[in-house]
């Protein structure tokens, strides 16, 4: 049934700004559904995820940026880039990513994790891997030959790599969070009531992932390091050129989901996908560009009415939460984080062969 309610718009971490809308009943929050996992395929995917030989220079792996000790994200505002490049966005966690239907901060991939894996491996400012070379590297490793066979994949191939890594990602799901176990503190319980009531975060953060899977603009300030650091900026330019964004050489803001809609008036600029709120305890800093360092910073930011943006909804306004209420809301958000996924069950801890030496200064190599 439709109802008039005080709604909240969210950004990439997304907490809350009130305005009146007509909305439908949100999917209830609750535990994540169980997944069926092929253990042999997942174990192969785990080794691939941590193997630096899957990058062009054989020095960076998926885990270089998606670090287990940081909730499979990265502890700096902006991601690392492939050597010779920087990056222009914060690293999202891959914990629970298998439950998503749309990926990337700008939502540009809405097909499957096979496609996400391919883009991360082959994009020149990320891992810069020629998949024909990757296939040959894997075929030269007898451990991979056996693991592919044991997984029922037969001979190693690029397509099977793009299946095995998503199978491993199924193992990276929230484990034993206080919220799921119904063992929250009193402050967290009070925060849950605020989440559903006065703050009404649930308007955009609902369902098992605590995300509506949509994009919103709440005025997150730009990270100027994207434009002041030439390494970051060249990756930003290359990305926007490839995505067909207008005037990409003159852009001084991240266009966000404009890459999908390309509205002529630019009113879609600065919108980003609502992220999951799970595992936030491990994944600071926050937002698509890492501009907010802590969860109290995020809650305070939205309590004050968010940032300034010409495309931010004109009805956005402060939440008027007290200091105590803000602390309670933070306590609830922290209760959505479970056990750290850092054991050998989730992390490949064995050494890799070193027959491919890391290329120290690849961009000055000449044939």
CATH level-4 homologous superfamily: Cytochrome c-like domain
Q: What is the CATH-assigned architecture?
A: Orthogonal Bundle
**Count of folded domains:** 1
Number of strands: 4
What is the count of helical runs?
Answer: 13
> Largest beta sheet: what is the strand line-up?
1-2
The termini sit apart by 66 Å
CATH class: Mainly Alpha
Describe this protein's structure.
This protein has one domain (1-26, 37-348): Cytochrome c-like domain (Cytochrome Bc1 Complex, Chain D, domain 2). A two-stranded antiparallel sheet has the order 1-2. Strands 3-4 form a two-stranded antiparallel ribbon. Helices cover 31% and strands 4% of the residues. The chain has 367 residues and is mostly helical.
Question: TL;DR of this structure?
Answer:
The chain is mainly α and 367 residues long.
